[in-house]
């Protein structure tokens, strides 16, 4: 029988051993590359959670102007924040599990089973009780994997990327918008399942009263009523506390004076015209514009003009303009607005819309009136809200009247309009939310069974006059 010579057999062994080492090294290298790649993906997804959920309105505006495509994707993702969060968590958990599995494979093959078994034998001889060598070896491998992987994930997969994403939220959101969009599509069924289960659990907790530990505004309302001992339900203390509580529900848009009603002076006006405006207005602060309210140049403080009254030669009133203007978005909450007025030592601010155009003007007095009620000075009209009471249950308002003011006149809670108001803050806006365009005279809108709104006068640009009939009142 033919046999291979000793040299040939030795050569085959060397070749097979070399092939085995190369294959093993390749597998280990591939696993190591996989761990690094998965760790990078974990970092990016973890960071995207902080980046997307920390974007404020100004960040979104920058994103819209500089990266319109990414802005649309981010906008779509943020429309359903619950599903977005579920997508991020599911993807991150899948990646972290894959990292643990690959890390376990790397540790077990890099250190070799013999090394673990030697260490296990040493422990077996050291410890006073007997343990299986294989069990101890596997436990050591597991502990090394858990400690190592946990450290890597915490440092490079959670802490570092989230800190970076918080500082660079716009860039991070731009980079991850498309990957997250595709992930949200791929994981849609699973994310929907988890969101649905979460909603059911939440509803179950609410119905069983378990969530009662969370203090709501309704709870605080009741607590205020119980705490202030009085037989008078209209006690001013109770009303004041409740108004303070609801200040964070009021936006700058709701309490501002719309741009069409703001008294201004043009920067090109001469001194005499400005002085006449000051004398007839009764205001102490007047915005100075250039052509229109989208270009506010500053605020003219009337007290600064007092020194000019005696000097008829000095007519350069423009040098008195205060260019340190305070701008606030329409969505600014009343409590935040009050803090801004306090910290910046301002009494007046220009309200801007989402495109940066001038929407109106809001003052410290406007905010305070939401807390303590109407403030009337010697220049105010006896009735700020223009309306007519036609009979016991019928009222006539201008279309531009704010819903807050309508609620005060009708002596109802403004929440009565919440079911139909959408994004509207005025009577005209409420109607336009339903018609999508200018309605014809006589158009009727019912709000529940209690309120009938009828358009009485409309021109080619706006709804001018509205009638409201309150059923059952009188």
- What is the gyration radius calculated from CA atoms? 35 Å
Number of domains: 4
Query: Uncertain spans, ≥5 residues at pLDDT below 50?
Result: 210-214
Sum up the overall morphology in one term.
Answer: elongated
Estimate what percentage of residues fall within beta strands.
5-15%
**Share of helix among residues?**
55-70%
SSE pattern: HHHHHHHHHHHEEHEEEHEEHEEHHHEEE
Give the overall average pLDDT.
77
Kindly report the spatial arrangement of strands forming the biggest sheet. Answer: 8-9-12-11-10
Structure annotation, total helices: 17
N- to C-terminal distance: 121 Å
Structural class by sheet pairing and helices:
alpha+beta
Largest sheet: 5 strands, antiparallel
- How many beta strands in the DSSP annotation? 12
What would you say this structure looks like, in words?
With 474 residues, the chain is of the alpha+beta class. It folds into 4 domains: 18-196, no CATH class; 217-245, no CATH class; 250-369, CBS-domain; 387-470, Uridine Diphospho-n-acetylenolpyruvylglucosamine Reductase, domain 3. It is 56% helix and 14% strand. The radius of gyration is 35 Å and the shape is elongated. The termini are far apart.
């Amino acid at each position: 029988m033919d046999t291979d010579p000793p040299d040939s057999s030795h050569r085959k062994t060397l070749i097979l051993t070399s092939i085995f080492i190369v294959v093993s090294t390749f597998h280990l290298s591939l696993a190591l590359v996989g761990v690094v790649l998965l760790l990078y993906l974990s970092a990016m997804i973890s960071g995207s959670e902080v980046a997307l959920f920390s974007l404020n309105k100004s960040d979104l505006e920058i994103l819209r102007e500089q990266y319109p495509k990414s802005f649309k994707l981010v906008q779509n993702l943020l429309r359903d924040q619950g599903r977005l969060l579920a997508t991020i968590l599911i993807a991150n958990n899948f990646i972290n599990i894959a990292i643990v599995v690959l890390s376990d494979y790397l540790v077990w093959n890099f250190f070799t089973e013999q090394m673990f078994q030697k260490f296990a034998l040493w422990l077996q001889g050291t410890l006073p009780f007997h343990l299986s060598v294989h069990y101890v070896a596997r436990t050591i491998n597991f502990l090394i994997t858990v400690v190592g992987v946990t450290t890597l994930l915490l440092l490079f997969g959670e802490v570092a990327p989230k800190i970076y994403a918080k500082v660079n939220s716009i860039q991070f959101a731009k980079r991850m918008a498309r990957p997250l969009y595709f992930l949200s599509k791929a994981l849609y069924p699973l994310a929907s399942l988890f969101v649905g289960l979460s909603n059911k659990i939440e509803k179950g907790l609410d119905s069983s009263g378990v969530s009662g530990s969370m203090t709501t505004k309704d709870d605080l309302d009741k607590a205020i009523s119980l705490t202030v001992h009085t037989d008078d339900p209209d006690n001013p203390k109770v009303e004041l506390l409740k108004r303070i509580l609801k200040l964070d529900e009021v936006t700058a848009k709701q309490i501002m004076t719309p741009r069409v009603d703001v008294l201004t002076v043009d920067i090109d006006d001469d001194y005499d015209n400005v002085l006449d405006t000051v004398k007839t207005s009764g205001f102490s602060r007047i915005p100075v514009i250039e052509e229109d309210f989208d270009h506010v140049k500053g605020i003219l403080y009337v007290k600064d003009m007092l020194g000019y009254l005696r000097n008829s030669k000095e007519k350069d009133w423009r040098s008195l303009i205060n260019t340190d203007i305070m701008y606030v978005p329409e969505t600014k909450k009343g409590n935040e607005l009050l803090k801004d007025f306090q910290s910046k030592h301002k009494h007046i601010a220009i309200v801007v819309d989402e495109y940066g155009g001038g929407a109106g003007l809001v003052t410290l007095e406007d905010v305070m009136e939401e807390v303590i009620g109407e403030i009337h000075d010697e220049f105010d009209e006896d009735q700020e809200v223009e309306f007519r009471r036609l009979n016991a249950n019928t009222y006539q308002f201008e279309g531009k009247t704010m819903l807050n003011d309508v609620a005060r006149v009708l002596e109802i809670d403004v929440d009565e309009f919440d079911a139909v108001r959408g994004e509207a803050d005025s009577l005209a806006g409420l109607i336009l939310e339903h018609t999508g365009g200018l309605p014809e005279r006589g158009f009727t809108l019912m709000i529940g069974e209690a309120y009938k709104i009828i358009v009485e006068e409309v021109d080619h640009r706006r709804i001018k006059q509205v009638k409201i009939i309150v059923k059952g009142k009188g």
